[in-house]
Amino acid sequence: MELRLLRYFVAVAEELNLSRAAVRLHLSQPPLTRQIRQLEKEVAARLFERNARGVELTDAGRLFLEDARNILDMVSRASERATSAHHGHIGRLHVAVFGSVMFDRLPLLLAQFRSDHPGVELVFHTMNKGDQIEALRQGRIHAGFSRLTANYPDIATQTLQHERLFVALPADHRLLQRTRLGIKDLAGCPLVLFASGPRPNFTDVVFSLFERHGLRPTLAQTVEDAVTGIALVAAGFGACLVPESAAYVQIPGVAFRALEAASNRLLDVNCIYLQDHGSPVTAEFVRAVQAFGPGGAVKTRPAAVRAAPR
Q1: 47: how many CB neighbours lie within 10 A of its CB?
Q2: What is the mean pLDDT of residues 165-169?
Q3: CA 160, 164, 165, 169 torsion-angle sign
Q4: Pairing relation of β-strands 269-274 and 240-243?
Q5: 156 CB-contact burial (10 Å; exposed 0-12 / middle 13-18 / buried 19+)
Q6: What does pTM read for this prediction?
Q7: Which domains does the chain have, with CATH numbers?
């Protein structure tokens, strides 16, 4: 049965007059009458009875009208969903995150994207950057967020935010009395370092910064992530160099200070995705990242997130 016949039937059922229905459908009356007769033949039931004013629905016609409207509504919704999927407004988006990238702009980006795309289901995975690359290539995720991203011919990168280098110190540390801190001030200070996945990693960044000043860091402990490193600072194991976003972690007994002349593009938080992803939802998400990128609009931070010390 053609959908066209259902639309003709609904028009006649609502107008209860073949002439008015024909005008509404931009048809002449004789072809419309033939189409209604063809429909009645297909359903093997009389749907209309003639009366002085036009036509009226039979019992079969009233039941058929309810079903016809439901069918046309379902077809309309299916068309709308297909259009929305084509434009990336509905679907499922798998996103991988790791470590301190979740402490600053990224949660705001995700909240805004969810608000702007209520039809997209966000699914999160915890993966370091090496695992993210493999997951992208295998189609298990659509996008990932990490630092220290190497150049791969099949992987595209969009920067979400630039970050400064901070040092986490025990709250009673003598260096906090200084108004300015640099790498040289940390010479001889025991350091807790963390390696965020495959090389190059955050520990490599720290060593390279010390080498620029002709120094070598004094290594006290090596841990897996920034939060553990900051917790060890509170326990008195030493100082910990962290990306700026990690300074949003508030642990009693720990204070943060920015390090001067220690900016490094390797600290940038980047969104990575396949160059040829072919996904409308991914394309929408990348556009959102671009809008939220360095210099982009950042909305109010959640109340639970306190501004990092400057």
Answers
A1: 23
A2: 92
A3: negative
A4: unpaired
A5: middle
A6: 0.65
A7: 3-86 (1.10.10.10), 90-162+268-292 (3.40.190.10), 165-266 (3.40.190.10)
